[in-house]
Amino acid sequence: xxxxxxxxxxxxxxxxxxxxxxxxxxxxxxxxxxxxxxxxxxxxxxxxxxxxxxxxxxxxxxxxxxxxxxxxxxxxxxxxxxxxxxxxxxxxxxxxxxxxxxxxxxxxxxxxxxxxxxxxxxxxxxxxxxxxxxxxxxxxxxxxxxxxxxxxxxxxxxxxxxxxxxxxxxxxxxxxxxxxxxxxxxxxxxxxxxxxxxxxxxxxxxxxxxxxxxxxxxxxxxxxxxxxxxxxxxxxxxxxxxxxxxx
Length: 247
Prior knowledge:
GO terms for molecular function: RNA binding. With 247 residues, this protein is α+β, with helices and mostly antiparallel strands.
């Protein structure tokens, strides 16, 4: 478990749980939590938690098989009830991002399936699901051209940006943004490596009332948040590898 936070912007900025506008919630990542999956991970951001399972690369069904590349399939399961329109939209969002980082040509005629089960949903659920999927792909040993991190932020009615929003903040928000940013680790920069975060988004989802300046400011804030998520993911992965090596 690691509490990751950014520098606060000043007084009068407290939120629920005493967080500052630019502060992330507590991040927890558990890997290899499912025995029958090729890779799995549980990603938690306090009140939001998603379990991801990766199956494959496996022989694709004849009707879906592509002779030149792998087929990525994503199943997004809500915490309770039947799948709705937003859940199907999330499937498309996640699949598009995964297709952007997995070198599909390495796995012709195969299928890579990612199943995402929402366990808790207190805001930033899509970002939580994307981060869980990335951790599960690493656990499965799937090749990726880069890793990525995702965060959500909201624009309040007072036009303040809040990073890593909870459900109440999203419901009251004027606009909501989810950005996914690719990154890699440069092991030549320091003993423990250094996160190199991209200046471009791998994926974005936004809704509400906002201007282009609002969106640009939201991306700059989200990029800083993604850098902190990437650092956490690196430390979490390193710790899990060390634990596996000592057994």
